[in-house]
Amino acid sequence: MGRPLLSQFLTLSNSSPLFAASVTCRRNPNELLKCTTGIFPHIGRKFRSLCTIPVADASSSEPAVSETSSVSIKKRVVSGVQPTGSIHLGNYLGAIKNWVDLQDQYDTLFFIVDLHAITLPYDTQQLSKVTKETAAIYLACGVDVSKASVFVQSHVRAHVELMWLLSSATPIGWLNRMIQFKEKSLKEGDENVGVALLTYPVLMASDILLYQSDYVPVGDDQKQHLELTRDLAERVNYLYGGRKWKKLGGRGGTIFKVPEPLIPPAGARVMSLTDGLSKMSKSAPSDQSRINLLDSKDVIANKIKRCKTDSFSGLEFDNSQRPECNNLLSIYQIVTGKTKQEVAEECQSMNWGNFKPVLTDALIDHLYPIQVRYGEIMSDGSYLDTVLADGARRATEIADNTLKNVYQAMGFLR
């Protein structure tokens, strides 16, 4: 069941914000588009001398909601996972587990990104089934529908509408630079790759910008896509926002918030059990490479027993010559809730024969309650339907307001 949005969504990065503030050019306004940083830092530097950051231009920098309001408003976080394959430990530790903490701190929307699931060949007979199973996994892992909205991407039609509008403002050169498209199109062959795989990052941008998201939890492999989302938000704000929008009857100011990456402190990139240099993935040919959340005790024990290790003595973090060791210790750290220092001290004198049973027991103990809860949720289909319908209604209210503003700012007759 998939990759976060960043796992694609969102199969969903380790640095401070990578983008400069919105800028206004003194000469030809078209030069602004050449001042974009992030994806094109060399071009941004070239034209920096032509640009100034606006200080008092309320029409171009006014936020949609006042930051100084006496009412405390939570920042918003959105994320999702594709309903393809099986939800595995990488999806859980890299994304879903972190959502449980985020829902207490932020206004959260977590969705099943089924529209992303059709960018490559898929089983039409299974799509609706695995979509529902993915939603059940969300809840079983601890996502609380009294705190977070849980819904299916395709149930909010604004995702597709905004994608088309954003596509008109997305330079094809930006998409051609996307690493995932290059890798997958090379692997699958041009005749087997649809246009959706190329434009997938625009849909991801739509997913994020629709909800005026403040933060997006992302992994290393999605960092480039979030950069594109940020650049695209800045570009649309410049092309259609500010005074131009106000002249069309809108409120003026920025159309989209420019989202920031939210990087979990550990587990953002869980690696394969058979290759410590490759990310754990549902698309890997061998099921031995991953721990699926619904794997039985015996299956988990067998996979850990057979996973790749090394011949060094003792166990340690952060040795570049021992990627498998670092990966397995990181997994153990997260599922036990211990600190890195505690795990390092506990395991430094262990050998693999001692450590593997300890890791196996920790994984089984951590996943068992999730598996039990999953079974309970799936046995009551009407409950899950109600959760998804309620989540879609709330998401639609937010998304439709954004979409209305975009249509207005772009000059459409409404």
Automatic annotation (TrEMBL):
GO CC term (a single one)? chloroplast
Q: Which GO terms describe its molecular function?
A: ATP binding; tryptophan-tRNA ligase activity
Q: Which PROSITE patterns match?
A: AA_TRNA_LIGASE_I
- Reaction(s) catalysed by this chain's protein: tRNA(Trp) + L-tryptophan + ATP = L-tryptophyl-tRNA(Trp) + AMP + diphosphate + H(+)
UniProt keyword terms in alphabetical order: Aminoacyl-tRNA synthetase, ATP-binding, Ligase, Nucleotide-binding, Protein biosynthesis
The cross-references to NCBIfam families, in alphabetical order and at most eight, read: trpS (TIGR00233)
Q: What is this protein called?
A: tryptophan--tRNA ligase
Query: Per the UniProt entry, what species is this protein from, by scientific name?
Result: Oldenlandia corymbosa var. corymbosa
